[in-house]
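USER: For my understanding, would you kindly supply a protein sequence with its structure tokens?

ASSISTANT:
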Amino acid sequence: MSTATRIFRNRIVLIFDFDETLGPSTTETFFDHHNLDYEPFNQEVNQRQEEMWQYPLAKAELLRVWSHRENSPIRQQNMETFGTEYPLYPGADTLVERLKQYATERDDQVELEFVLLTAGFKVIPAATEIGKQFDRVYAGELVFDDRGRILGAKRVISHVDKVHYIKQLISGLDINKPSDLENTYIDHDDEDKYVPMSQVVYVGDGASDMSAFQAVESDGGIAIAIVPEGKEEDWSGYEQMAPKRRVHNVAQADYTDDSELYRSLQFSVDRMIAEIKLLRLGKGE
């Protein structure tokens, strides 16, 4: 006789940020690749923020302005080509395949789904080796003219918006229509959930992901923070951080087999598979 009452799904969803999580800053690295001075651009973005612009909108507007300069390399084709050459962190290019194989060896009924959720713009991440391997990609999107110049942004995702996207995703709602009536005003039966939050892993790089970390952790999921090389000081005050904003682990940006980060992901999958097996027993399957 089945007595289990919790939601049962043979699915684990791993959600990754992109910039400084799977590789270095896309914009800064793109500028360096084309011998553009990134610092003046960054200063202009910061100035706009002081004028109360949202960061992704300020960034999109300045990319538009810079792309219209004479002989500017900031063009759609160049960005897509750069994506194919983008320097991922060690082991990231085979991460999806290795983790899926790892999960299959432990339970071939459990599906791993990989989701990219970034406040950056989609054009570069989607063209990378790992971007092509993700099951879903949610990111800001730029509009280009017939010469490849940027006309503006048709979608932006702020760091706070990520929480909304995560909650929409686990509820099984259409993330591309976040303001529709069905997504905003109507109660949703938990039994219709795509996956419980306890079967979600969120991986991000720091302060900009704190809201997402907290949302996932507070409902039983796992959050893992990345420390890119040279960014260790960004986590220097971690011990003083409010407990609710802490994560399961903070690891160096290295996805190779024996790294602390990869083992953290393996342990996360292990825990969730064990809970799925327990629920499966409770369902009498």
Q: What stands out?
A: The chain has one domain: 11-24+88-282. Strands lie at 11-16, 111-121, 136-144, 150-155, 200-204, 222-227, 249-252.
